[in-house]
Design brief:
- The complex is a heteropentamer, with 1 copy of chain A (283 residues), 2 copies of chain B (261 residues), 1 copy of chain C (301 residues) and 1 copy of chain D (261 residues).
- Chain A is mostly helical and 283 residues long.
- Chain A is 76% helix and 0% strand.
- Chain B is α/β, with parallel strands linked by helices.
- Chain B has a domain of 179 residues: P-loop containing nucleotide triphosphate hydrolases (Rossmann fold), CATH 3.40.50.
- In chain B, helix 4 crosses helix 6 and helix 6 packs parallel to helix 7.
- The longest helix of chain B has 14 residues.
- Chain C has a single domain, classed as MetI-like (MetI-like fold, Orthogonal Bundle).
- Chain C is globular and about 75 Å long.
- In chain D, the strands form 2 sheets. In chain D, strands 1, 2, 3, 4, 6, 7, 8, 9, 11 and 12 form a 10-stranded mixed beta sheet that branches. In chain D, strands 5-10 form a two-stranded parallel ribbon.
- In chain D, helix 1 crosses helix 7.
- Classes of the chains: A mainly alpha (283), B alpha/beta (261), C mainly alpha (301), D alpha/beta (261).
- Chains in contact: A-B, A-C, A-D, A-E, B-C, C-D, C-E.
- Chains A and B meet through helix 7 and helix 8 of A and helix 2, helix 3 and helix 6 of B.
- Strand 4 of chain B pairs antiparallel with strand 1 of chain C, so a sheet runs across the interface.
- Bound molecules: adenosine-5'-triphosphate (2 copies) and magnesium ion (MG) (2 copies).
- The site of one magnesium ion (MG) has 3 residues of chain B, from helix 1.
Chain lengths: 283, 261, 301, 261, 261
């Protein structure tokens, strides 16, 4: 019986420990968010900062080209990877039989999703920047990130497609629609909200990615990139560059402000994804 | 077996496998033209399997295999190279759970005609109205054709599905327990509708409901799995009246009097 | 024909020509992942071959002397052992902290927290996973490094700081996957244990954790994957030194951090040696993936 | 050189080379292009060796370098433009009581032979060396002058040293780390760090130009032959008074202020 | 009601809610010591709910609420602060689906004793052997004690679960349809076992199988949901013989003769 009491005491201790662990993770998160926002908000909310051009040597630079670069890169990457991952997801969920082929595709997807992003960066640099002679540019970065994000985007897209009830497919096929027509006219439209939701999460990742783009897209530009073949400087990479070069006197201000702005963007994407996900689930 | 009616379909020695599992074995059965044929039998005896063989819906299932023949208008639909897409337009299907697309009522009905390449708005309008009328749904939905088909009640959804099938003007319509998911009033409506449609279509209905089979069908086939794990076999087939009043097989009698199943 | 068909049974679900073309197109999309992996492997290998050939495996992988020469790359030495060591040391120590923390948080979510709080923790961890690594790195550089410096009297930069940053990076992976594993356990296990008069904690450590062992292991391995691959955050706090060290307060580099520290100006065999480091990363990642496959295959049996 | 009149120059100037010079070069390019909208200056890094090599291969028009030409690079066709003068100053954390270090002490510290401040008259604390990255010209000069590194006997700073990509970061780390020691360009010295005397000499423009303070060097832009057109305009702009005063003197010493050597 | 037997448990006016849904209402029932009490009733009438109230297993379900009392040895187990852990050790439970832990047979049985802090190998060995013998499983598994409990057959697994409960020497054992997932031969074994265990334990069994209730139990309680959505109520309780041969409530008679449920 005394042993039983011991069991109860260890249970209370364990419960305490787990509460601490659980709360610690939330506290850590809050601490990081509050700290970064508090430090950078004053800089970041200043229109002169986020609408200004960056300076290479002088203090007082802004980060407008970096914001544009980030958004541009997101759009370009999604534009490249979404069609591919929808195609691949359709193959995996509608056509593929369980077997060697789909097994090895899954293996490759799993591998892609564990490779360090710096490896993608080096690969993108050798293939797109050097071998294809594109130079460091948005397109090279977008292609690199498209490969990097393929597994996660594909998984989300595939899930959305698999969630389409089979009865829709049956109904369409029984009306004499071919498989492809069924996919185009019924499966994809039904899965679209889910696919959109699945697309948003990778957007956050693209915004935050730095190791894969510093050698493919660029680190510093003064002008807003317009052409996909222009060198660009996405915010995440620029934040790293600014602190590691510290060429300008006010680099702390720039990094603080840039980090806060980047965090706000990523949080906005996250909550948008949650919101859309919830709305999608309710349907 | 029935000399007065022509056969729309003839099922000949049909067996069907899910992978290694034989679901039905050696079934031969004629589907008379412009009549309603009911398939009855306890759960798992292969009614759905059989009815889905009739428009090759089983093609969708991986590892499915068929032996035997199903003749539609003198042609075996299981010859290699047979036009399956065309077949499914000729042999429509209504499922157990109403399954309208997540589109408007209009688009649900127009789906089939659009597949056939009809783009002309006026013609589509006509087909939609006509089909909904035939499905006895027009009056209830004509004001809200743009609303989602999924907002209708269960019974309305099922009639919408019937309208959707009618819109491609099939020759045969297969019903797989069309009323098992809807209420009695809606069931009544659909049974009336089926009697109406007999003028134009050959129909096959799978049902668990003995009364329903007796009420709506002209011919009835009774399927049974003798021993668990065995394939389903045809026990008896004949005129619905005969089957329900004077079955020749003792197992049929026991089933229709509710002693098992 | 039909007799033959009757005998063999005709194969259903054959596609028509147009659909076959569509299928091939979709297949091409899907196999892009295969192509990508192969290309990545090929290009990284190709770029690292000169270093492997010129320096030899011993001088490249088993030496800790990294003294590049920028203007005359052939004159430098490029032994990456110190960085391999740095990667392994920081990753392992991150797991030492991160695995219990992450699994603990997962147990908290699954067993101890009331639903609303469990939800908050789950969302919080998802959010943590989304914070860009440069931000975590900047946070580490401006708060963690000075804190360690004050606490220990060291410079603050080094493997300890890097490991702690890696804990933050790997924690979401470990927690999310562990919680998923725990949730997928059959509820009967818990019921059986509770009905025996076991406390929650006894149920957790005697029944649930052993039953979820493989899944938890996979969660930790995937967390390791994140840790091994993390680049920017580590580079910002590890001190970017070239020494082989085992002391948590000493500065060194990981493979990833060394690549971005040196890649900018590297040419010739120097650059190739950096690609060889990427090759090592690639191989490490593949080892992880294969071990996960083996574990999950075992679980199925 | 005379300051450029608006829009006088046109054409493309390609520049590459030393990362030390890169920011200056970049800034000059930006301002030069603002003054000459029809001119286009493209600046890239790569390191001093890369710049000179590309210049000789005619890939670029200007090669930036933070060191003198080496023997095999000096084939007589390259023209040297000294654009700034840089003094390397040894700095420690302001809390460090050590004020002066001899040549031998510096060498011992940076090569790792002395790893505790006690041995050079400081507190009993570990020495944390902060050095520049491999590609840095500053590091090359420092290794050569302070560590007596030669081609035959290369000397490296200790592997435990923190490697930084720029003067700014060295200053930041030394300024925030109690036991750190590093070296930075003269222009970067401020009150966050404490400069120590080197071999008894305080770093100053005067002593550096006479050679009494040894760790100094010029920053260069090289061209193939005498520059013409936009290339000349660009180099002239770099050497122009406003640019030298406003930009160069922020971190380096204006080339005009250096008279000797 | 039965003066010869003492009551181990007394259920007094017990109601139980899942959130807002009242699953059982106002149930009063005595569980006589060292007898087997059967709970019967159609699906959903709250048998499981009731039996799980007897060792407070419902505490695990979110939003569960209980009104009324369950007295175990003169103490209400629903008083605040009552030792629930200790209660569950005194009132063991065997579930519908055999649920051995993914551990060895030995460890399954030793689980409870270990919880009680017993570490001594020899003592554990003794308990394991003893419990397996009491559960009539020893002869079948004694050679493979280290094999996983989940590799046993369904019936063996269920007996293993019984052995696991016996090992903590509870006073009461609750069985929730212990035989519904296993074959008739194994069922026979378990029924025999229960008769055997009556010497030492008070038992409560929930069963769908009328014959089983009649065979194994001494007392029987019949629960029923009158109208769908209503809570389950106790209809009749008494000596098993009486209930099965001469029930006083007409609904009980209709149920046990198989007319509904
Ligand atoms: N996709 C499938 N894969 C494997 N086996 C299947 C599949 N569909 C049905 N079966 C099996 O084939 C047999 C016949 O099933 P079928 O659905 O045709 O029966 P049914 O008579 O329609 O039953 P119900 O009345 O329950 O709908 C059953 O044993 C069933 O388990
Ligand atoms: N966890 C739960 N949450 C909400 N309602 C529940 C829960 N468990 C059971 N119920 C409901 O409580 C009622 C009684 O359920 P219970 O499981 O006790 O019935 P039962 O008599 O054991 O039925 P069966 O014979 O099918 O096992 C049912 O209406 C059931 O739906
Ligand atoms: Mg069916
Ligand atoms: Mg129950």
């Amino acid at each position: 019986m005394s042993a039983g009491k011991d069991g109860r005491r260890s249970d209370r201790i364990a419960a305490g420990v787990f509460w601490v662990l659980g709360m610690a993770t939330v506290a850590l998160l809050l601490f990081i968010i509050v700290e970064i926002l508090a430090r950078g908000l004053l800089t970041a909310l200043n229109p002169k900062f986020f609408l200004g051009k960056p300076e290479a040597m002088k203090a007082g630079g802004g980060i407008l080209p970096m914001i544009v670069s980030t958004l541009y890169l997101v759009v370009l990457t999604i534009a490249i990877s979404l069609p591919i991952s929808i195609g691949a997801a359709i193959y995996m969920s509608e056509f593929a039989r369980r077997g060697r082929v789909s097994g090895s595709i899954r293996f490759c997807l799993d591998s892609l999703s564990t490779l360090p992003s710096i490896v993608f960066g080096l690969f993108g640099m050798t293939l797109f920047v050097i071998y294809f002679r594109w130079g460091m540019c948005l397109l090279a970065g977008a292609c690199t990130l498209a490969i990097l994000n393929l597994p996660i985007l594909l998984r989300g897209t595939e899930e959305a497609i698999r969630l389409v009830p089979n009865t829709y497919r049956e109904a369409s096929m029984s009306l004499g629609a071919s498989k492809w027509t069924t996919i185009r006219k019924v499966v994809l439209p039904t899965a679209m909200p889910g696919i959109m939701t699945a697309t948003i999460l990778p957007i956050g990742r693209i915004m935050g990615e730095s190791a894969a783009i510093i050698y493919t897209t660029g680190l510093f530009v003064r002008n807003i990139p317009l052409n996909p073949l222009d060198t660009a400087a996405p915010l995440a990479g620029y934040i790293w560059y600014a602190q590691s070069e510290a060429l300008v006197n006010d680099y702390r201000r720039i990094v603080d402000g840039g980090a806060a702005l980047l965090l706000i963007m990523v949080l906005a994407v996250y909550f948008l994804a949650r919101y859309l996900g919830k709305r999608y689930q309710q349907k | 077996m029935n000399d007065l009616t022509e056969n729309k379909m003839e099922i000949k020695n049909l067996s069907m496998f899910y992978g290694d599992f034989k679901a039905i074995e050696d079934i031969s059965l004629d589907i008379p033209s412009q009549r309603i044929t009911a398939l009855i039998g306890p759960s798992g005896c292969g009614k759905s399997t059989l009815v889905r063989c009739l428009n090759r819906m089983n093609d969708l299932i991986q590892g499915c295999r068929v032996e035997g023949e199903v003749i539609l208008d003198a042609e075996n639909m299981y010859t290699p190279g047979y036009d399956v897409i065309g077949l499914r337009r000729r042999v429509g299907m209504v499922f157990q759970r109403p399954n309208p697309f997540p589109k408007s009522i209009y688009e649900n009905v127009a789906y089939g005609p659009r597949l056939l390449g009809i783009k002309d708005k006026q013609r589509l309008d006509g087909i939609v109205e006509d089909s909904l009328k035939k499905a006895a749904l027009w009056d209830e939905v004509k004001a809200n054709l743009q609303e989602s088909g999924q907002n209708l009640s269960g019974g309305q959804q099922q009639r919408l599905c019937i309208a959707r099938v009618i819109a491609v003007e099939p020759e045969v319509i297969l019903f797989d327990e069309p009323c098992s998911a809807i209420d009695p009033v809606a069931t009544q409506l659909i049974e009336d509708l089926m009697a109406d449609l007999k003028k134009n279509f050959t129909m096959v209905i799978v049902t668990h409901n003995m009364q329903q089979a007796a009420r709506v069908s002209d011919f009835t086939a009774f399927l049974l799995v003798q021993v668990q794990g065995d394939p389903g076999r045809l026990v008896e087939y004949g005129d619905t009246n005969t089957i329900f009043t004077n079955p020749s097989d003792e197992r049929t009698e026991r089933y229709i009097t509710g002693r098992f199943g | 024909m039909s007799a033959q068909a009757r005998q063999a049974g005709i194969r259903l679900g054959a596609l028509n020509a147009r659909e076959r073309n569509v299928k091939y197109l979709m297949f091409a999309c899907a196999s892009l992942s295969v192509l990508a992996i192969m290309l990545i492997f090929l290009f990284i290998l190709r770029e690292s071959l000169p270093a492997i050939r010129q320096l030899g495996v011993r001088n490249l992988f088993l030496s800790a002397d990294w003294s590049p020469n920028v203007s005359n790359p052939e004159a430098g030495s490029y032994g990456m052992l110190a960085f391999i060591n740095g990667t392994i040391m920081t990753t392992l120590s991150a797991m030492l902290i991160g695995a219990p923390l992450g699994i603990g948080a997962a147990v908290f979510i699954d067993q101890f927290a009331p639903p609303s709080i469990a939800q908050v923790v789950r969302r919080g961890i998802e959010l943590l996973a989304g914070i860009p690594s440069v931000i975590i790195g900047w946070f580490g550089l401006t708060l963690l490094v000075p804190f360690i410096a004050r606490l220990t009297g060291s410079s603050g930069y080094g493997m300890l700081a890097a490991s702690l940053v890696l804990v933050v990076m790997a924690l979401p992976t470990i927690t999310t996957l562990s919680a998923e594993t725990l949730r997928s356990l059959p509820p009967e296990l818990q019921e059986a244990s509770v009905a025996m008069g076991a406390t929650r904690w006894q149920t957790v450590y005697r029944v649930l954790i052993p039953a979820a062992r493989e899944g938890l292991l996979i969660a930790v391995i995937l967390g390791m994957g994140r840790a091994i691959g993390e680049t920017m955050a580590v580079q910002m706090v590890i001190g970017n030194a070239r020494q082989l060290t085992f002391s948590p307060l000493q500065r060194t580099s990981t493979l990833t951090s060394r690549i971005i520290t040196d890649m900018g100006e590297a040419t010739g065999v120097f650059r190739s040696a950096l690609f060889a480091q990427a090759l090592v990363l690639l191989i490490l990642a593949m080892v992880l993936i294969v071990s996960i496959r083996l574990i999950s295959r075992e679980r199925k049996h | 050189g005379a300051p450029a009149r608006k829009g006088r120059y046109s054409g493309t100037v390609k520049v590459s080379g030393s990362t030390t010079v890169l920011p200056l070069s970049q800034e000059a390019a930006t301002e030069f292009m603002a003054l000459n909208p029809r001119a286009n200056v493209e600046v890239q890094g790569g390191g001093s060796s890369v710049g000179v090599a590309q210049l000789m291969q005619k890939v670029v028009d200007v090669g930036n370098s933070s060191r003198e030409l080496k023997g095999d690079e000096n084939n007589g066709t390259l023209v040297d433009h000294r654009i700034a003068f840089d003094i390397i100053v040894i700095v420690v954390n302001p809390s460090n009581p050590v004020d002066e270090l001899s040549h031998e002490q510096v060498k011992a510290i940076f090569t790792g032979k002395v790893d505790n401040w006690k041995k050079v008259g400081g507190p009993d604390k570990e020495v944390v060396c902060v050095v520049r990255d491999q590609a840095s010209g500053t590091r090359e000069v420092f290794d050569e002058k302070a560590l007596d590194s030669t081609k035959e006997h290369p000397m490296e700073s200790t592997p435990s040293a923190i490697e930084c990509a720029s003067n700014g970061v060295v200053r930041e780390i030394v300024g925030t780390t109690r036991n750190a020691i590093g070296y930075i360009s003269f222009g970067y010295v401020n009150n966050k760090v404490k400069a120590v005397t080197y071999g008894g000499v305080e770093a100053s423009v005067a002593d550096a130009s006479t050679g009494r303070y040894p760790m100094a060097r010029y920053l260069h832009m090289f061209t193939r032959g005498e520059p013409e057109g936009a290339v000349k305009g660009y180099i002239d702009f770099v050497l122009s008074d406003p640019f030298q005063t406003e930009i160069v003197s922020q971190e380096y010493i204006k080339i005009k202020d250096v008279t000797v050597k």
